[in-house]
Amino acid sequence: MSSSGSTYGDIHRYEPARESTAAAIAIVLLTIIEVVFVFFFVFALVSGWAGTEFGNMFLGAILGLIFIDLAFILALYRKEFLPDVMIVKKRRRKWEDLYIDSDDVDGVSLGGGEQAWDTLKRAVYPYYKR
Question: Which of 11, 95, 99, 111 could form a disulfide with 104 if both were Cys (CB 3.0 to 4.6 A apart)?
Fold first, then answer.
């Protein structure tokens, strides 16, 4: 589904998510594995395994597995359950935010008085508006 609107914020393309049952089952199983890893990590931390020679490496490995499992859960959720939406954004030229108009692209001469102060403010804070 796409629209021909070119106004800022219009939805240009919208593809609904697949929402497959296999992905939902995989997310549930990965969540159960995540809970088991968290239980092992908390148990090892409370038991004081971090003070032993190999316990610290075990805790690091379990923590790594927790985050890898979480990454798989989030990637699967994003791919299967979030729609693909492209919105129309306002295209800006690279000098548009930094300068008042296109004639000031090369900068302005550093004169005295108020003009010098405005130039300094624009150099320090590029999004300064008059």
Answer: 99
What is the per-residue DSSP string for 50-85? GGSTTHHHHHHHHHHHHHHHHHHHHHHHHHHHS-EE
Q: Which residues contact 18 (CB under 8 A, 6 or more apart)?
A: 80
**Longest CA–CA separation in the chain, Å:** 71
Q: Is this structure's pTM higher than 0.70?
A: no
Give the tens place of pLDDT for each residue, 108-130.
555 555 666 776 666 666 655 54
Using alpha carbons only, what angle is made at residue 80 by residues 26 and 18, rounded to the nearest 5 degrees?
A: 115
Distance CA 102, CA 60 (A): 55
* pLDDT digit string, tens, across residues 54-104: 999 999 999 999 999 999 999 999 999 988 887 776 666 655 555 555 555
